Structures are given as structure tokens and as C-alpha cells.
Automatic annotation (TrEMBL):
Localization annotation: Endoplasmic reticulum; Mitochondrion inner membrane; Peroxisome
Catalytic activity: 2,6-dimethylheptanoyl-CoA + (R)-carnitine = O-2,6-dimethylheptanoyl-(R)-carnitine + CoA; hexanoyl-CoA + (R)-carnitine = O-hexanoyl-(R)-carnitine + CoA; butanoyl-CoA + (R)-carnitine = O-butanoyl-(R)-carnitine + CoA; 3-hydroxybutanoyl-CoA + (R)-carnitine = O-3-hydroxybutanoyl-(R)-carnitine + CoA
MF GO annotations: carnitine O-acetyltransferase activity; carnitine O-octanoyltransferase activity
Name of the featured protein: Carnitine O-acetyltransferase
Bilayer topology annotation: Peripheral membrane protein
Role, per record: Catalyzes the reversible transfer of acyl groups from carnitine to coenzyme A (CoA) and regulates the acyl-CoA/CoA ratio. Also plays a crucial role in the transport of fatty acids for beta-oxidation. Responsible for the synthesis of short- and branched-chain acylcarnitines. Active towards some branched-chain amino acid oxidation pathway (BCAAO) intermediates. Trans-2-enoyl-CoAs and 2-methylacyl-CoAs are poor substrates.
Family: Belongs to the carnitine/choline acetyltransferase family.
Native source species: Mytilus edulis
Active site: H290 (proton acceptor)
Superkingdom of source: Eukaryota
GO cellular component, one term: peroxisome
Amino acid sequence: MRLTHTVLSNSSNVYHVQYVEEFRKDSGPKLQKFLEERATKEVNWLSDWWASVAYLEFRNPVVIHVSPGIVLPKQNYTDTAGQLRYAAKLVAGVLDYKIMVDEQTLEVEYMGKNPLCMTQFYKILSACRTPGLKKDMWECFPPDEPNPPTHVTVIHNNTFFSLEAYGKNHKPLSVDQIYNQLQKVVEMSKNSSTPVGILTSENRNTWAKAYNHLVKDKTNQASIQNIKRSIFVLCLDELLPGDMSDERSVAAKMMLHGGGSQLNTGNRWFDKTIQFVVGRNGICGLSYEHTTAEGPPVVSLMDHVAEFCKTEHDEGLPAENVKPVEKLEFNLDNKSLEAIDQAKKDLDKQVKDLDLTVAKFTDYGKNFPKSVKLSPDSYIQTAFQLAFYRLYNEPCATYETASLRKYQHGRTDTIRSCSIESLAFCKGMCDTNVSQEQKRELLKKAVNSHKNYVNEAINGQGIDRHLLGLKLAAIKNGMNVPDLHMDQTYSTSCHFKLSTSQVPSKEEAVLVFGPVVPNGYGLCYNPQESQIIFGVSAFNCSPETESNKMANSVRQSLIDMKNLMAGSVQAKL
């Protein structure tokens, strides 16, 4: 069991040997046996547990805390007609992607020579989460079930509609036909409705109580079931904040939380696995509920749709027997209206607390670290370590997502980017007595140490999910949670002040999410060949953190690291 990459920033940076030894000799082997027995009965011993513990049992709101937002490049439309025309193409693009899902012809992805599990790709459309008082439920309505979903949920001015996406003989509607349907949606919702969708932004227990009351009414029950069974949600936003000076960051907020109760948060259904957002003035992107998939399957869909929207398509004859759009009704009594009012207040507190910056680093991208034979991801992660160290004069526990899709139904493990080697590099960079050559060597060691950890994690040798499994095995078998898991040092090592993820895309897009601890940062990045786009989040309630300050520190670290390594290249010449 490897614990060497956990570096603590306080005086207790030595593990409690007693707890480790007790765990190794006593409870550890017993719990390991339980896991091995579970592995003989399950396709993947962890995947169901992970979905429950990380998502369905998590009681915080999915907004900011769970569901990421993705910002697409700004589109060039400026009026309602342009907005609806783009939205119509987007819907057609999703339906085009869905053909590959329905026929199971998506191209299998590989990591080197190893095929990757594609299960997640088949669980993002026609899927939805449902709130529960202690644990939520997630459902997917596959294309091979009787009467599979054939409609899209459209939300405009907080009003919900069901748009049938296919005509006679299951022929998809053409772009023009979808455009006409969207025009009717706008005509039927000129005035804003009561924002029932804002309930989905609530604490999960609070939302579950409101949900259970809502569905006592048969009309509400039918409308919610229609939303749950739809292929995806399309949000047509009308509003933008007054200050648009940082347009990319504003767009990120629209995707992540909708901007608040006075803007577009009521124009959402955050339980839906996929909801595309097409806003005013070319702002667009999507939000996705995280229970069943990481970023890559969602980005695959997004990239396909973005490319589809750029090209013209011969759609042949239009579909026949097009059904009219159907407005979904809600009967809201005083209790539901009170729940909606409270949800507005709770959501606005979250929105006010979130500090979010999207930045584009254009000095270089993946091209430079590759040119000096360093792993781009490990290089960028080392820049994050330096950026944090320069701000706080200490390292911190850092989470980076490691994909386990090499294994059937695999999800993620943790790459602990903060290491002994990264700390040595950070200290060296800040020490004027350390020579440039020594700093270069420290950088190379830090980058290569991270690269080695990545290889271990993606090959099932990470420590975090294994330790979680051992803890869950104790709970499931009525045993005490081992002292090792209860120790403050272990808790500190899992207090991830930097929660990071690389989500590459062909587009100039960036994924954003909230921090996982109150005094931490969420940091997601899209490394492209000649630029790096990244989103940084923090909470305003923490006096320690500021997203723009962190973004600037990352930018400066990337500049300094290139100057350092470029000196090495010049010396060789």
C-alpha cells in the first residue's frame, strides 16, 4: 500500500506508525478478504459503491458541488432567430450522435494498446437522477426498452415543454422542423413561469421532501416523468447579468449554476444527466449530472455536436407526422411555492459564495513540454503545485482524476500530484541560492515522479479507492472503521485544497466545477497544442482563497517554468 506521495503541511507529517501497524496486522487483512470476495461476485467491486458514496448518498446540492459546467466557444448569433437556429442544429447534432449510441457503433477508445470501457458513453442520454431522503436514485431509459424516449425537454422562461424529436418511421426531425418547433416554444412562453426547476438546485434531502409532495399531484407526476424520460434537456436562456466585462467567466457561471434566481437557474433541471444551454448573444455550453460519467464521454458528445453545428447536412425529405410541442404543466400549492421561494434564497447564497475565473494561457500549450520531452499533464500539474506554494508558502493535498476505464465499469482513482519531489522543486524555485541547472533537475524529477504516479493509478495501483473500499467493507460487515481512517493525519491528507482534472476537447472549451473543501480551489484545464484553457473556482467565504489570484499564479508559474527549461535548450544549442 503506497502512502509516500501524501505530503502534509503541518508538524504532524509522520504517519502514526501504530495505526498503520495495527491496520496491517489485524483489520487490514480481514477487510481485504471481504473485498476479494466481493470482487468474485461483481463485475467491478467498486463501481456501485462509488456511485452511491460519491454521488447518490451525497446530500449537498448537485449545483456547484457535483455537476460540472462546460463552456463552448461563443457563437456568432445576436438575436432570437439566430439563437433558435443554433439550438435547432444542436438538437439535430445530439440526435445524430444518438444513432451511434442506439446502434452501439461508437468507436472504442484506447489508452496505448489497451481498449477502454465505453459503458459511460451509453449512460449519458435518456438518463436522470431522482432525489431521495437518504439516497437518490438514478435511471437510464435505454433504446432497446419498450417505447424508448423519443422527445427532448425544452425549457424557456422557466416553462417546460416536450418536443417530439422524431416523425413517422422514427425519422429525426430536420433542422428546419426543429427550428419551427422551438419558435412555437418561445411563442408559448413569452412570460416567465414560476421557476419549479430551481428546486433541483437544493440540498438533496430538502429537494426530496419537496419532490415527494410535488408528485402527489398526478399532473406534476406526469410532467416530471416526462422530463426524466427525455433524451436530454435544452435550456433556452433569455437573461444575462449587467456586467459582461469577463464574458468567458460569466458564461462559465451560466453553465455551472445559471446565474441565480433572478437570471437562469429556474430555467434548468439539474437532475438531468445532460442539459445543453443556448443563451443570448452566443453564450452556450452544457451542464451534466456526474453520477454515471466523467468528463470524456460528455466531451465526446459535445465535440460531435459542435462539429455538427459547423457543417451543412443533406437531411433529405422532412419527417412526416410531426407532433406539436407539448407544454408540461405543474400544479403548485402553497407548500410547493414556499419550497420554491426557499430554494431561491438557498441558491442565491451559493451563487454569491462562488468565485469563478476562466483564463486562457496563450504563451504555449502541450507543444512546449513535449518539445523538452516532459509529460504535458505532469508538467501542468507541477505548475499548479508551484502556483499554490508561491501563494501560501506550503504544499497541500492535491486531487487529480485518474481514469480507471482500462477496467470494465471502471470510474476513477486519485492521482496525488503533491509529492516529495514537487515540494523540493517548489522550494528550489523560490530559493535564490539554487542554480538554474539544479532547478531544472528538480523540475524534471517532479514531472517524472508525477508521471510515474499517473501510470500506477491508471493501472489500478492507486491508494485512495482501495482505502475507501476497505473502510466500506468494515461498515458493510458491521466492523469498526479502522483507526487509520479516523486519524487526523489521514483526514488532512484527504483535505484536497486543490481538486483538479484534465478534460481535453477539440474545441476551445473548458469544464468548471466547485472546490471540494471550503478553503480550496477547483481547477480544470483543457490543454491544447498551443494554449491552455483553465477554469479556477474558490469560495468567497474563505478569506484564504481567490480564483483570479490563483489563475495569475498558475500563469506566472507556466511562464517561469518555460523560461527555466528554455534555458536548458539554449545551453545545448
